[in-house]
Amino acid sequence: MARVVVDVMLKPEILDPQGQAVQRALPRLGFAGIADVRQGKRFELELEGPVDDAALARIREAAETFLANTVIEDFTVRVEETS
Amino acid sequence: MTTRVGVVTFPGSLDDRDAQRAIRLVGAEPVALWHRDKDLHQVDAVVLPGGFSYGDYLRAGAISRFSPVMATIIEQAKLGMPVLGICNGFQVLTESHLLPGAMLRNNHLHFICRDQKLRVENASTAWTTDYQVGQEISVPLKNMDGRYTADARTIDELESEGRVVFRYLAGGPNEVANPNGSINDIAGITNAAGNVVGLMPHPEHAVEPLIGTGKTDGLGFFTSVLKQLVSS
């Protein structure tokens, strides 16, 4: 079975207060030297059939219309081989 | 004939009954619409109420946007039917692209719940003719994802065409006007035709003197649409 991973991130110019809250907490917990944190979403899609061009095109369409809101978010689609 | 105003109930809607009550108070007939139903039951206008449709999973309003009832509402809204989206309803309208822009988590990351002062910026939409430009009203605000955003070109377009309908104002000297980091203090906007309006605060909670803000500042939305429908 094949897995396709869709990563969704807020666009770089959009303020990410959740990422900032995490970044502010890190030094308090002893993790120094982290200049910036941005928080995103990862979707793991397990496909029933093969990962061919048609399947990937459908997933890109799903990502663009539903998984990500392209007004505020960017996304990437990649295939992850599973056993 | 009585004017029929539909109120959609999605799984997770909270303010559908309040919206129905507000509609009844101004003398129109509220019609309960179910999210899985494609049929609008001959309503003349639609209110998308506040709440957390589909639990706000994925993004606020993102899943409801693909419900069967929304397919019909999007179609009718484009033909001119008045649609009002309140809070979660506003989020559904941006996800549906009936209104431009998008809604983000509040900049301070807190759920906010307070009486919110607003300035009316546009009194010519289907839902605001009973207000006056510059009028200040107070209605409750309660949300987690109320930070309105859009790209610079869209904001310029909204501002230059007078499509910002409401802006946040401070309620007192110790209150920050903008409750969530929304661009240009935008609390509500309209589409180019003026029939679709979305706003984060809740006018349906300010329609009777005994509850909410103690004022009835929210009634104007419902009297406005009623007049527009009766005269059309």
From TrEMBL, chain B:
What span is annotated as the signal peptide, if there is one?
none
* NCBIfam families (UniProt xref): FGAM_synth_I, PRK03619.1
Superkingdom of origin: Bacteria
Q: Which GO terms describe its biological process?
A: 'de novo' IMP biosynthetic process
> Which InterPro entries does the record associate with it?
Class_I_gatase-like, PRibForGlyAmidine_synth_PurQ
| Key words of the record | ATP-binding, Cytoplasm, Glutamine amidotransferase, Hydrolase, Ligase, Nucleotide-binding, Purine biosynthesis
What name goes with this protein? Phosphoribosylformylglycinamidine synthase subunit PurQ
Task: List, alphabetically, the GO terms of the cellular component aspect.
Answer: cytoplasm
Q: What does the record give as the reaction this protein catalyses?
A: L-glutamine + H2O = L-glutamate + NH4(+); N(2)-formyl-N(1)-(5-phospho-beta-D-ribosyl)glycinamide + L-glutamine + ATP + H2O = 2-formamido-N(1)-(5-O-phospho-beta-D-ribosyl)acetamidine + L-glutamate + ADP + phosphate + H(+)
Pathway-wise, it operates in:
Purine metabolism; IMP biosynthesis via de novo pathway; 5-amino-1-(5-phospho-D-ribosyl)imidazole from N(2)-formyl-N(1)-(5-phospho-D-ribosyl)glycinamide: step 1/2
Q: What is its EC number?
A: 6.3.5.3, 3.5.1.2
Which SUPFAM superfamilies does the protein's record reference? Answer: Class I glutamine amidotransferase-like (SSF52317)
GO function terms (MF aspect)? ATP binding; glutaminase activity; phosphoribosylformylglycinamidine synthase activity
Relate the assembly described in the record.
Answer: Part of the FGAM synthase complex composed of 1 PurL, 1 PurQ and 2 PurS subunits.
Query: Where does the protein principally reside?
Result: cytoplasm
Q: What is the lineage of its organism?
A: Bacteria, Bacillati, Actinomycetota, Actinomycetes, Kitasatosporales
